[in-house]
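Example complex used in Figure S2.
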Amino acid sequence: MTIETGRPDNLAELLRAGAPALSARWVELVAAPLRGRVSAPELERELTELYAAVLAGVESGSRDVQAAPYAETRALLSDLSRRRARAGFTPTETAIGVFALKQALFELVDRAEVDGSLGDVAAFSLLLDNLGLLTFETYAKAREEVIDEQAEQLLELTTPVVKLWDGVLAVPLVGTLDSARTQVVMEKLLEALVSTGAAHAIIDITGVLAVDTQVAQHLLKTVMAARLMGAECTISGIRPHIAQTIVGLGIEFGDITTKASLADALRHALRRSGVDVVAAQRGR
Amino acid sequence: MSAPREDIPIGADEDVVRVRQIVRSFAQRAKLSLVDQTKLVTATSELARNTLTYGGGGTAVVELLGEGRRQGVRASFQDEGPGIPDLTLALTDGWTSGRGMGLGLSGARRLVDEFDLDSEVGRGTTVTVVKWSR
Ligand SMILES: Nc1ncnc2c1ncn2[C@@H]1O[C@H](COP(=O)(O)OP(=O)(O)OP(=O)(O)O)[C@@H](O)[C@H]1O
Ligand SMILES: [Mg+2]
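Predicted assembly (418 residues):
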């Protein structure tokens, strides 16, 4: 047997002999703070697997959790942390899964139920600290993934194409437009034009903070694409400070119809499709 | 107390959005009018995207300036990309080496009060703009 850290210990022996008592107590300690949010059989299965992996690593003689003998442990731990992160557990609740094994060993050694020296306990403690840090890392990564996914979903949700009238679609653009967002909105609008056969589309930018060349280019391309599909596109809600900035940049909207407000744009679209909107009291 | 300043690494699309948000909040602190805020935000959006697209990423530095009674915002964009071989051409309306509108640089220059472009082929590009409150 090779001992990489140069510190001989009896850890493997200790973990093998104490296995039933240790893993049982471990499950108990982890289950308490999670209070039924992970089912008992599931937790038992997770931890039994993990225990076996840790034991295999320890038996190799290595105490370096980044080393090859701990590959299985790392894989199991990162799966577990990822599941916890996704299920909404806190980092503490996640890491406790590892640290509780330490406590289990302390208790059993303290009550002399297993035979462990101070050196063994210290070695194990260090090992588990490092594994605990690993769970934090995976947890953080998994949370980031969740946040990214949510941002993407939000993107999908916050780009509604609405039908204002028979044959008239509108899409309100809101907030800070990045390339991805503008692209999604524009694609949705074109898809909606196809599926509804609408002849008019209104892109309302009242809620947009700034129009730069990239946003302008997306707008222009969408209007051109809509035209190719036989639909007319109007841009509405260009507020004065945005208009001045667009002019300053040198962007020209050419022959694209622009209207001050969404209402004006709708009136324009209706007139083009042969509907005239007049005030009721002015009727003859 | 040191002057308010923010360094923003530019390495991805969302960093361009972050630059815009930070510039907007600095512009509000400098009490720029809504038009001037929008002009500065739009100009820096162009420069940040150039840093990303052509400079291969870099850094933005946004600072609050105080000079007598007027306040302003300076934003500087620095990259170590290929540089710009022909500055006059790059500043020509409608000229692009890529697939843009070719209005970012020239338009940004029109939207700000001070504009400084420094580029060396093979070394990189730095563009600095300032907008003052009126
Ligand atoms: N940081 C940079 N590094 C290298 N080249 C640059 C940099 N910034 C601009 N350029 C060059 O200058 C040209 C003009 O830039 P400009 O921003 O005016 O237009 P664009 O980015 O091509 O299109 P637009 O900004 O209108 O979408 C670019 O096509 C590019 O060749
Ligand atoms: Mg550009």
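Chain B has a mean pLDDT of 94. The pocket of adenosine-5'-triphosphate (ligand 1) is lined by residues A 213-214; B 46, 50-51, 54-55, 79, 81-82, 84, 90, 96-98, 100-106, 125 (CB under 6 Å).
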